[in-house]
Structure formats: structure tokens, C-alpha cells
Specification:
77% of the residues lie in helices and 0% in strands. The protein is mostly helical and 424 residues long.
């Protein structure tokens, strides 16, 4: 694991800085999750088909996933705040476009809403992954792991609150959610502007030099990075696939909808969020522990998925789903720390942004994949997911080593010796 020496001293207002940074992924999560409860109202109001209304989600996620690497490159060249703050403004502007379209341009509302969602997706690309890279720039050791754990917890908290927020705001009007986006962006932009100070002395590399240094980092750490990307994508795909299935299950079996359903869906995500926050405090810079927790988390997820089709009674069912939330909370903060620490400040933005893209695509793939497998049977759905989680654990066990680790995959510890200093 490459521990960069460019992080500055821990600021006195550490938790205020972390709170400002944590607001960035919180905002990004609301972009899709808040709209899900009001999609039926949008469909009915605009006389849309199911495919047409699904584009409101798709045309946010796809631009974000595609453009995230570009924003990572720009943040490496011009600074993290120079990307995050304009990205948040663009994100809010996209919501404003969609809201104005719904209120004033009834005839063209659908097309303009889609345009606003594309703009929002472009803005979302410069948010959470760049905030993660900025944590790596600002902090090191236990402060870095805590800040990254807090960011993951904030991401989870957004997932917890967004269905409830969406349902509550939707009681006013179906387009009220779009108006909410620019309003909630304002305090986060102010916090980023006033509280977060980037490290000084960023050296802008020429493009050719930058690409060479990035390629070297990726070549040196490809096993760790690729296996981490895979583990993150699997964890989030399973979590969101299970939540999608749970949403259908609650409506069909218990007739739950609206705010009550949102509250029940929040339970496993709340477990994930709490576990993420605690994990960030535990791991510090202990690479061996991080890698063990990633493998343990994916293994626990495998066991819970195997058990789910066999669960008898709603209590056991929810216990297993909550365990999946806990396992995800073990995995993600460790991956965040490993990935942000695998590169220096010069390449970190692009490294973390590629991870952000993979996470976006994992989230996007979960619901449709589970929707397809639900028709084939819940046993196949959960057990095939268990096989995928187990495969992720095995791949990470074999390849999740930083350059310089022992050839034996069970040897996790890598301690780089600074240039010019003798080893002890």
C-alpha cells in the first residue's frame, strides 16, 4: 500500500471538515433513491410507459458512470475543490431544470426532465469519488480511515433517508423532489468552500507525464486495484438487488407502500451505515486487518445469501438481510482506504474515480439483474448471488496484494521503506 507523505496535519476542526466532505456523497445518493417512491406518480401525471419512466433513473446513472473518470483526471490536474464545487452546482441546476419543466412546460415536460437528469448525472460524476480522493489528500493513518468510514456511513445514511424523504416530499407534489435538489446543495457547497482547505503545492504534470505515472501506479497495483473494484461492485450490486427484491416482497406480502415501506427498507441500510462508521474507526492503517475484513465481509454475505431461501418467518428473513447490510459495511470502508492509499496525490483522483464508476455500475446492475432472476425463482436468485460473492472473496484473497507483498496470498502485510532510509 502506497502511503503518500503529502497529507497535511490534522486540522483542529477535523470533524467539521469531515462533515462537509460527507455531505457530498449524501447529496449524490439522493439523486436516484429519492425519486423511486414518486416514479408511479410521475408515470401517471405524464402518461408514460414503464420504460419511459425508468429512463428518469437510467439517464442519471449512465452519464455519471461514464464521466466519473474524466472528473477524476480533472481533479488530479486542477484540484479537488475545483471539481467538486462546480459539480455540485451543476447537480443542483439539473434538478432545477427538471422542476421548471414540470411546472411551466407541461407539453415538453418529459423531454426537459430527461435533459435535467442528464445534467444532474454529469454533476454527480464530480462528487463522491472526488471527495474520497480529497480525504486521501487531507488525512493519513487513522484520520484517513475515520474520514473514509464517515463518508461511507454518510452514503449509507443517504440511502436510509432518501426513500422516506422522497415519499414525504412527494406528498406535496411529484415534482417537489426536483426542487429539493438545488436547495439541499447550497449548505454543502458553502461547507466545502469555507471549511475544506486543500493541501498547497499541487504540481501540475504534463498530460503525457500524468498518463505515464498513472499507468505505472495501475501496473504496480493492478492486483489490489482490480480485485478491490470487483469486490466493491459485487457488494453494492448484491445490496441493491436485495433491496429491490425486498421492496417487491413488502408490497406483495404485506401491502406496505410509501413512507412505511421506506422505513422498513431503511433497516438493512442502517446496519450498513453504522457498520461502515465503526469500521472506519477500527481499521486505521492496518492493511492486514482491512484485507481480512474484506474477505470476511464477502464470506458473511455469501452465508446470508445461502440462508435466505431457507429462512422461515419474517424475523429470520430480516435478520439475514440485515447481515448483508453489516457485511457490506465491513467491506466498503476497507476498500475505500486501500484504493485511496494505493496512489499519491498526483494520480489519486483518477484511481478513486474508476472505483466510483464501478460502484455506480454495480448499483445500476443490481435491480434489473434481480428482477430477471426473480422470475426464475428466489432460490436461483440468492444462491447465484452467493456464488458471485464467494468468487469476489476468492479473487480478492488471491490478488488483493499491494506490490511488494509476499508471493503467498495469505501474507497480507506490506510495509514500504521510504527511499534513502535503511530498513530496520
Amino acid at each position: 500500500m502506497t502511503e503518500s507523505s503529502d497529507a497535511q496535519k490534522t486540522p483542529k476542526n477535523y470533524w467539521l471538515v469531515v462533515a462537509a466532505l460527507s455531505g457530498v456523497p449524501f447529496i449524490m445518493v439522493l439523486g436516484n433513491s429519492m425519486l423511486i417512491p414518486v416514479l408511479p406518480d410521475i408515470r401517471n401525471s405524464l402518461n408514460l410507459s414503464s420504460v419511459q419512466v425508468s429512463l428518469i433513473i437510467t439517464l442519471f446513472s449512465l452519464p455519471a458512470g461514464i464521466i466519473i473518470p474524466v472528473t477524476g483526471f480533472l481533479s488530479d490536474r486542477y484540484g479537488r475543490k475545483a471539481v467538486i464545487i462546480p459539480a455540485l452546482v451543476v447537480y443542483g441546476a439539473g434538478g432545477l431544470i427538471a422542476a421548471l419543466a414540470a411546472v411551466f412546460f407541461k407539453q415538453y415536460a418529459y423531454v426537459l426532465i430527461l435533459a435535467g437528469r442528464v445534467v444532474q448525472g454529469i454533476g454527480a460524476a464530480g462528487t463522491a469519488p472526488i471527495a474520497m480522493a480529497l480525504c486521501g489528500d487531507l488525512f493519513k493513518d487513522k484520520e484517513r480511515s475515520r474520514s473514509l468510514g464517515s463518508i461511507e456511513a454518510s452514503n449509507g445514511l443517504g440511502k436510509v433517508l432518501s426513500p422516506v424523504l422522497g415519499s414525504a416530499v412527494g406528498l406535496l407534489a411529484w415534482y417537489a423532489a426536483f426542487i429539493f435538489f438545488p436547495l439541499v446543495v447550497i449548505p454543502v457547497v458553502v461547507g466545502m468552500w469555507l471549511l475544506v482547505k486543500e493541501p498547497e503545492g499541487r504540481a501540475k504534470q504534463k498530460l503525457g507525464q500524468y498518463l505515464k505515472s498513472f499507468a505505472k501506479v495501475f501496473k504496480d497495483q493492478k492486483g489490489l486495484l482490480l480485485s478491490s473494484y470487483l469486490a466493491g461492485a459485487i457488494a453494492l450490486m448484491v445490496l441493491f438487488g436485495v433491496l429491490f427484491y425486498l421492496s417487491e416482497y413488502l408490497e406483495q406480502q404485506y401491502g406496505l407502500d410509501g413512507i412505511p415501506k421506506g422505513l422498513v427498507l431503511a433497516i438493512p441500510v442502517l446496519f450498513m451505515s453504522a457498520t461502515s462508521f465503526i469500521t472506519g474507526f477500527i481499521i486505521k492503517k492496518k492493511e492486514a486487518l482491512m484485507k481480512i475484513l474484506v474477505i470476511t465481509g464477502l464470506s458473511i454475505m455469501t452465508a446470508a445469501l445461502i440462508f435466505l431461501p431457507l429462512a422461515k418467518g419474517v424475523i429470520f428473513y430480516f435478520a439475514a438481510i440485515s447481515v448483508i447490510g453489516v457485511s457490506t459495511g465491513l467491506v466498503l470502508p476497507c476498500l475505500n482506504m486501500l484504493i485511496t492509499s494505493a496512489a499519491t496525490i498526483k494520480e489519486r483522483g483518477l484511481i478513486t474515480s474508476l472505483y466510483g464508476s464501478v460502484r455506480f455500475f454495480g448499483v445500476a446492475a443490481g435491480p434489473p439483474l434481480y428482477g430477471f432472476l426473480m422470475a426464475k425463482g428466489t432460490g436461483l436468485m440468492f444462491w447465484s448471488s452467493a456464488g458471485l460473492a464467494l468468487a469476489g472473496a476468492v479473487v480478492f484473497f488471491i490478488f488483493g496484494k499491494a506490490k511488494g507483498s509476499q508471493a503467498n496470498p495469505a501474507s497480507f502485510i506490506y510495509k514500504p521503506i521510504p527511499a534513502g532510509k535503511p530498513g530496520k
